[in-house]
């Protein structure tokens, strides 16, 4: 039986690994795209161990390598059913004229979105396909601590919203994922953050379920939905004084 193929961009983070396992288990062959060959090979081996009948094709791409984006995309050359994007680089501000400014905005938004448009164009041609893209609650209201990262995630949220509108009369499905904290191995979360966090395993399962239910916006859980609703409606005069 021919299987459907899913492309996972940024597949080597913990959430990407969990998603790879879930989609492989659910009869998808995988195209994994990440910047790190060794991590790619490890993931390939892991999937092969767990799901012997799953084909895994791997490609290396640093998303900042604009020239290579279309070269890699053209190499994929397979009927891809959907794409999941996990690429992101978290960043706390050190100074307003931060040397990381362009890298952070390009990784989290512009160069990433540019790569995703290659998939969208093909999905549109065949009038079928899905894009699941992980943004962040940090994109819902700019905070003093991390607003370079947050503004790029906000642009990504807006891009995805625009895509849903642009493709409204097609069979394309577009999901925005808005996690709060993800409890990766080695993440340094304080007590409250830990309490509010979600494991990559659970987040991946929620994403898979939400895709089957055609949910377009997915938070980690109801608590985060509530927190962000409150944060969004706080008047500016109050919000700018809040410390978090
Ligand atoms: N951790 C959280 O609390 C949290 C909260 C909200 C949203 N998110 C979002 O969730 C997603 C997963 O993040 P994570 O924190 O769980 O793990 P992470 O390890 O920070 O994941 C980031 C992924 O992006 C890839 N990446 C970063 N820069 C890249 C570049 N220049 N080219 C290609 N790939 C690049 C990383 O590749 P490597 O594997 O090679 O490093 C990794 O696969 C991200 O989009 C993040 O913004 C995370």
Short description:
With 244 residues, the chain is α/β, with parallel strands linked by helices. Helix content is 48%, strand content 16%. The protein starts with a strand and ends in a 5-residue tail after the last helix.
Offer a few descriptive terms.
244 residues, alpha/beta, Rossmann fold, seven-stranded parallel β-sheet, 7 strands, 16% strand, binds NADP nicotinamide-adenine-dinucleotide phosphate
Describe this structure in words.
Helix content is 48%, strand content 16%. The chain has a single domain (4-239), classed as NAD(P)-binding Rossmann-like Domain (Rossmann fold, 3-Layer(aba) Sandwich). The chain starts with a strand and ends in a 5-residue tail after the last helix. Helix 1 packs across helix 7. The radius of gyration is 18 Å and the shape is globular. It is α/β, with parallel strands linked by helices and 244 residues long. It has helices spanning 14-25, 37-50, 66-76, 101-126, 147-166, 191-196, 200-212, 222-233, 236-239, and strands spanning 4-9, 28-34, 56-60, 80-85, 129-134, 172-178, 217-219. It has nine helices and seven strands. It has a seven-stranded parallel β-sheet, sandwiched between helices. 34% of the residues are buried. Helix 1 links the parallel strand 1 and strand 2 (28-34). Bound molecules: NADP nicotinamide-adenine-dinucleotide phosphate.
